[in-house]
Design a protein that fits this description.
The chain has ten helices and 19 strands. It has 411 residues and is of the alpha+beta class. The chain folds into two domains: 2-28 and 371-410, no CATH class; 51-278 and 336-368, Metal-dependent hydrolases (TIM Barrel, Alpha-Beta Barrel). The strands form three sheets. Strands 2, 3, 4, 11, 12, 13, 14, 15, 16, 17 and 18 form an eleven-stranded mixed β-sheet that branches. Strands 5, 6, 7, 8, 9 and 10 form a six-stranded mixed β-sheet that branches. It has a two-stranded antiparallel ribbon with strand order 1-19. The radius of gyration is 25 Å and the shape is globular.
Length: 411
């Protein structure tokens, strides 16, 4: 029994040793080059030419029962799909932890999604249009280099859109992280657990063209209070999955923040979505000005710029004009309609030559540092010495190396 106890202790210590060493010693190190703020003569305007009637609601973050209920989801994938479909959503993915649900993979509006991450600080990612699951993660609180390593591994799935989930939850992604991290596409701006406006503005202010999404992060399909809290309006005229991916990639999607009423019925939620009026006509850039044009007056509008600073506030607005001079980097709008729904638009921003790909940006601003082979060798050697010292008191096989006993005799 004593031998079994010794072996158990040794294996437990070895397990934690491997976790710590893998994360903090063997994990790749990077030189992070800080990108400059947006600048240039060209302008990226996701809302230059849109048709409000071609937008459809979408939710990409919902959990069903998986693994005998161990993964914090209640209800089946079928129930989630059917309920969101009943509510008028054009896209409604089931995002299981480390698993791609394929229950409706033959539908033209099916998008494969999973939530990546199993760590203490909930540094999670939502992988949209995933082709496979990436299993690597770091369990303990992650360094900047740890986070970049995970994002870079997930980004090897070139078809996938990578979303940083609820960054403000437990500081899973800090403002400082968002200055430097690369190889991701979007930030989950609105989530029931955290709103992450500060992190988004930090990323944008440091020249990272990342877009916003908002999701219910549903864990119980039978709880109506978890439905339709936040959603995405996706520009998809025919409600095809390819259109949805394109909308998320080019930033023409809009994040929708719906007012919440505890105990609201499904019928009331359906009516709220059906009666909602986007009102946005388009955004135009002319003569160093940004013009935001609405079909109907909106209750209020706020426009934010570099550093998340408020540059304009207006009420009962039909047309809004704000300066967007050559030294302005980006502007983003938040407006509220008279039904209490808030709409968060992606930024209009400047660039110089062309919009670079995720991979090109990462290869330009991330420099992988060589590993410290000597330190690693010393660490492994020390572990071998410790193992022999510890096991020499347990197994006769290690008796020739039992300097542990000789040391104990001297003591």
């Amino acid at each position: 029994m004593k031998i079994v106890l010794h072996i158990g202790v040794y294996l437990l210590v070895t397990f934690f040793f491997c976790i710590i060493v893998d994360q903090y010693v063997f994990s790749p190190k990077y030189e992070f080059l800080l990108t400059e703020k947006f600048s240039g003569d060209k302008i990226c305007n996701p809302y230059k030419s849109i048709n409000p009637n071609h937008y459809t609601p979408a939710n990409f973050h919902a959990h069903a029962t998986l693994g005998f209920g161990l993964f914090n989801g209640k209800g089946s994938a079928n129930e989630i799909w059917n309920r969101y479909s009943q509510m008028g959503y054009g896209f409604h993915s089931v995002s299981q932890y480390q698993h791609i649900d394929k229950s409706f993979d033959t539908a033209k509006n099916y998008i494969p999604v999973y939530e990546h991450g199993y760590n203490l600080k909930k540094t999670h990612q939502l992988i949209i249009n995933a082709s496979h699951v990436t299993w690597k993660d770091y369990f303990l609180p992650q360094t900047l280099a740890n986070k970049q390593t995970i994002l870079s591994q997930i980004a090897e799935d070139t078809s996938a859109l990578i979303v940083l989930n609820h960054p403000d939850l437990l500081n899973g992604y800090t403002n400082n992280d968002l200055k430097y991290l690369k190889n991701y596409d979007c930030i989950e701006l609105l989530n029931p657990a955290a709103n992450s406006f500060s992190q988004w503005d930090t990323a944008l202010s440091n020249g990272n063209h990342v877009y916003a999404v908002g999701n219910d992060d549903l864990h119980d399909i039978h709880n109506n209070n978890q439905l339709s809290r936040f959603c995405n309006l996706i520009y998809a005229p025919t409600k095809d999955a390819k259109e949805a991916i394109a909308s998320l990639k080019n930033g023409s999607n809009i994040v929708m923040w719906l007012p919440q009423v505890t105990g609201e019925t499904i019928f009331e939620k359906i009516q709220k979505i059906k009666k909602s009026n986007l009102s946005l006509n388009n955004i135009e850039i002319m003569h160093d000005n940004m013009h935001v044009n609405f079909v109907h007056p909106v209750k209020s509008i706020d426009i934010f710029g570099q550093g998340g600073s408020l540059v304009y506030h207006g009420n009962n607005s039909l047309h809004v004009t704000v300066p967007f001079s050559s030294d302005s980097s980006y502007l983003r709008c938040v407006f509220e309609t008279y039904d209490g729904i808030k709409y968060i638009l992606n930024p209009v921003y400047r660039y110089k030559h062309q919009l670079e790909s995720r991979n090109f940006i990462a290869s330009t601003y991330l420099k992988k540092m060589p590993g410290n082979d000597i330190f690693s060798l010393i660490l492994i050697s020390l572990w071998i010495v410790f193992s022999i010292w510890y096991l020499s008191g347990v197994f006769p096989l290690f008796k020739p190396f039992s300097f542990r006993k000789r040391l104990l005799r001297r003591v």
